[in-house]
Design goal:
This protein is of the alpha+beta class. The protein has helices at 8-18, 31-41, 43-49, 64-72, 101-115, 159-164, 180-190, 196-282, 330-341, 390-397, 400-427, 432-455; strands spanning 21-27, 54-60, 80-84, 90-95, 130-131, 137-146, 149-158, 174-175, 307-313, 319-325, 350-354, 359-360, 378-385. The strands form four sheets. Strands 10-9-13-11-12 form a five-stranded mixed β-sheet, with helices on one face. A hairpin with a 5-residue loop joins β3 (80-84) and β4. α3 packs parallel to α5 (101-115). The chain starts with 7 loop residues before the first helix and ends with a helix.
């Protein structure tokens, strides 16, 4: 299909010059637009629209040209095909409810008949009979385009006003076109001696006949307009039904996906519980409380997971948590504890112990992964400082500040002892103070020994 390349204003100008039908195709992006566009591309339709009797332009729905066109013709459905005559009124309108090429072809031929044009038969050259128009005013409509903006305006031609201005040229004689010429010319030629009154009477009869034909055409256009309105209403209702049905299907799909996701989560929870119960059944709890007699437990079944979250507990009561990949070697765990968990504490000699089942990790475990050691998907590891290190003493005594506090009071203890001796010598008193000091020192040493035993 060869479309007119230019603006709407240019297409209107060309259609006026050629006395052609101005045809506008409003194209959308839905299935109805695709169907109507396919009908137009058919050779039975495109062959007619490419004729000189038509000036066909394509306008995309929602564009600026579409908004300009819709401002002239209020109701412009998408898709649609407008056939506009020289008066600016639509001769025919084809919408997306067209079901076949034959139906669209009927509308094209109907527009041709309404415009008085023909595709195959060219008008025969007939001598024109010039008749002086009457003094009445004729009002028509036409599409007027100024600076690329087109509007539908009334066209008024007043012969009385033209006669009142001598400077204006005389009115152009009106040429009767077929079929009026077929009836008027023979009578004029055969009755050349007819009086002026008889000629006026004949003109009145032709005028009445033309008015009757115009009324019939207007009636047919009104019937067609109502039909097109009904088709448009049916089309809009069908669109609403399709949208409602699609919305219901979308809600149904979303509910189904939500139920499947919920069921998947419930199944995963049930599988995790079964796996956890089976893991607890396969692990033999240790009966010994000493770290030196820790017994090895059966290798637990690995829980399918990509990562493991480990929690480290240090001697001062603080905890650190970090997530590792389940394929991480245990040697990397030791390095992480040394560089991150015990950073700044000065502790270098330590051991790592799993809480449950209780197990102390040895050098042999450094080549194993977290999945092999049963530390997936989570686990708790105690950081125990080995005896004999200065760091252990610092951690056990509560830090460097506590050590300085103990040294300070140790240096002042002899001074307080001498002061107490002189006070008892002067004011009297027994050895209750010394006994209390001895008891306090013994209790302190017992507490330290208990702390050491707990660390071991």
């Amino acid at each position: 299909m060869k479309w007119f390349e230019g603006t709407i204003a240019e297409a209107v100008k060309v259609s006026k010059e050629r006395n052609a039908i101005f045809t506008v195709f409003i194209e959308g992006k839905d299935q109805f637009s695709t169907k109507l566009s396919g009908f137009i591309e058919d050779r039975r339709i495109s062959g007619k629209l490419e004729d000189a009797s038509f000036v066909v332009i394509k306008v995309e729905g929602g564009s600026e040209s579409y908004m300009q066109f819709a401002s002239i013709y209020q109701i412009v459905p998408v898709p649609s095909l407008f056939f506009i005559g020289q008066s600016g009124s639509p001769l025919e309108i084809a919408t997306g409810v067209i079901e076949s090429v034959e139906e669209l072809e009927k509308k094209v031929l109907s527009a041709l008949n309404a415009n008085g044009s023909s595709l195959t038969v060219q008008p025969t050259t007939v001598p024109e009979t010039t008749i002086t128009p009457s003094t009445s005013s004729v009002q028509e409509s036409e599409v007027v385009c100024n600076d690329g903006v087109c509007q539908l305006k009334p066209k008024i031609i007043s012969n009385e006003e033209e006669q009142s201005h001598p400077s204006t040229p005389p009115p152009t004689p009106v040429a009767l076109q077929p079929p009026q010429l077929e009836t008027a010319i023979p009578e004029v030629q055969s009755n050349q001696g007819t009086t002026q009154e008889q000629l006026k009477k004949r003109l009145e009869e032709i005028k009445v006949q033309k008015e009757n034909e115009n009324r019939e055409q207007e009636k047919e256009r009104e019937i067609q307009r109502r039909k097109d309105g009904k088709e448009l209403q049916t089309f809009q209702e069908k669109q609403k039904e399709d949208e409602y049905r699609e919305l219901k299907e979308s809600i149904k799909r979303e509910k189904k996906l939500e139920q499947e996701a919920r069921q998947k989560i419930l199944d995963q929870i049930a599988n995790d519980r079964k796996e956890r119960a089976r893991k607890l059944d396969t692990q033999a709890p240790s009966t010994s409380t000493s770290t030196t007699n820790i017994q090895s437990t059966p290798k637990p079944t690995a829980i399918p997971s990509d990562s493991s979250k480990l929690q480290f507990r240090v001697p001062n009561g603080e905890t650190h948590a970090h997530t590792f990949v389940n394929s991480t070697l245990f040697s990397e765990i030791r390095n992480y504890v040394q560089s991150t968990v015990l950073q700044g504490s000065g502790i270098s000699n330590f051991s790592l112990v799993m809480t449950y089942p209780r197990k102390e990790f040895t050098v042999e475990d450094d080549t194993k992964t977290l999945l092999d050691l049963g530390l997936c998907p989570s686990g708790v590891i105690l950081v125990i400082v080995k005896s004999g290190s200065a760091a252990k003493v610092i951690a056990r005594t509560g830090g460097i500040a506590n050590i300085f506090n103990t040294l300070f009071w140790g240096l002042l203890s002899p001074v307080f002892a001498v002061f107490g001796y002189f006070r008892r010598a002067v004011f009297g008193g027994g050895n209750s103070g010394g006994a209390r000091a001895a008891d306090t020192g013994a209790q302190k040493r017992a507490n330290e020994e208990q702390i050491s035993a707990n660390d071991l």
